[in-house]
Amino acid sequence: MPRYRDAAVGGCLSAHVEHRADGALLLRSTEALAPYPARLTDRLLHWAQEAPQRTFVARRDRGGAWVRLSYAPLLQQARAVAQSLLDRGVSVERPVAILSGNDLEHLQLTFGAMLAGVPYVPVSPAYSLVSRDFGKLRQVLATVTPGLVYAATPEYATAIEAAVGADVPVVLGEGTLPGRTTIAWAELAAAMPGPRQAAAEQAVGPDTIVKFLFTSGSTKAPKAVTTTHRMICSNLQMIRQCFGFLAEEPPVLVDWLPWNHVFGGTHNVGIALYNGGTLYIDDGRPTPAGMAETLRNLREIAPTVYFNVPKGLEEIARAMEHDTLLRDTFFSRCRAMMFAGAALSQQVWDRLHAHAEAAIGERVRIMTGLGMTETAPTCTFAVGTDVASGHLGLPVPGVEAKLVRDETTGGKTEIRFRGPNVMPGYWRAPEQTHAAFDEEGYYRTGDAVRWLDAADPQRGLFFDGRTAEDFKLSTGTFVSVGPLRARIVAAGDPCVQDAIITGLNQDEVGALVLARVDELRALVGAAAPGDAALAQLLTTAPARSFFQGLVDRLAREATGSASRVTRLHVLVEPPSIDHGEVTDKGSINQRAVLARRAALVEALHAGRDPDAFMANPA
């Protein structure tokens, strides 16, 4: 058996399983949830007293030096910001909207809002900087009606002009906006905290709203999740009990994940705060242009626990093949890695294990689980040394899971959750809130699961796709989209990034494929110019051979009509954020892609697509 670095775990290692007369199964951790603070800011107050000069968050300045913000100075600065917010009349009905990404001012503003008892709304920067029509930005701001808007730089000017009313004060981290009066960050942060701020801080309770987080919109339009102190604090205690090593030493994180998402802004920032740790803001991204900064940071800062999306871990694993400094620094203190947002291919999983063994002589646990914005986020974890891609584990302490079989989705089993980490509802959306919960108050996730081993439930659950994405062929056979997408990506490694499954009411299954252009260029080599666009690459013999071989393999290795992919089309036009085809974190909205490209899908299945790759008869 491979040897793993010691990392204390618990909390989700076993579960009570209750079989009910109505056919539902209830799962609860055998470990009780320990007490947790009433307010997230209680942890800031705690560490400001216990470790006042310990760095909480650091970010590189333009010269590359780390600028650090320690616990005690952060508390002092956040109280000043809280006073300014109260002076400007922001409230639950008119919260603080933050348009820009992760930085020190963003962090101070969020804690200032918490200490004032006022919600904040971290908005995806892509809605301002990538979108052309600002439709999602308008939707977000119309939903929450902000009383103050913050942006780091004037590059947000066009979006602010298009979507922020002239009556809404705008705070800028630096610079000014042409034709609009703005408030400088220094002015906002210069207030002297007074009795009103102290009273507001004391009035905050477990049900006070911390923030409105918008869902990613991977299956439906984004919704504003009402996120309270109780939700966040209970979930961070759940995580601490499952990741026991967090209590053994203050964690060190190097993290790029955006704070407008629950993974980065609640889970990762929360883990650092709750456990008195340090978070280094990584201004990199898992993209060809952004990875250099991430790798630079990881060569310098050794994390004790590392979180990323699968694409990020894939790029790091690839870089480690020829960068021993990166490999050895990364694994020198790392107790565990965790991914979320999508499935991690087994090839990347195995590569990371090999790098760890080369660096430190043993493996480091790779953990995963199931969570969502509505549950702040964690509900299940898989933390053992036998974890593999697709594993979800068992419920964390304090969370009740209900498994419900649904014949309308082909007999799949949906998992639902109830616990102190579950949202009270969507903001200003009573109908959507009502639909989100069943008659017993369990949140309907739309995620399907199955037992990893039906004979041994303690081995945990396995992800079985999203019920909202599944569909029937003309034969009435259900197609399980999630596992099929994962199979296509694995079979198409490294040239396939994702796939959109087609075939609703058709005789056979097809797919629209998103290619990794850089990997395809490497595959094609001298058959095309080094800067060739995707359309040109697809005309070359190596590329055509690759995708023809892929569809032939998918058809040949299928176990039935629901898994037999008989036709592929490689998309040259990438999914559009303005059309809702892709979320700001890169997740594909299958429904939106199929709706926008209905004519292409029809041609693919009618045999009229000249660019299709069709499986050869067996």
The total of beta strands comes to 28
CATH architecture call of the domain at 471-614:
2-Layer Sandwich
**Portion in beta strands:** 15-25%
- Unreliable segments (pLDDT under 50, ≥5 consecutive)? none
Give the C-alpha Rg: 24 Å
Q: Mean pLDDT score, rounded? A: 94
The biggest beta sheet, please?
11 strands, mixed
CATH homologous superfamily placement of the domain at 471-614: ANL, C-terminal domain
Q: Number of helical segments?
A: 21
Outline: globular
CATH fold name of the domain at 471-614: GMP Synthetase, Chain A, domain 3
How would you portray this structure in words?
With 618 residues, this protein is of the alpha/beta class. It has a domain at 471-614: GMP Synthetase, Chain A, domain 3. The protein has 21 helices and 28 strands. The strands form 6 sheets. An 11-stranded mixed β-sheet has the order 1-2-19-20-21-22-18-17-16-15-14. Strand 3 and strand 4 form a beta hairpin. Helix 2 (71-87) packs across helix 3. It is globular, with a radius of gyration of 24 Å.
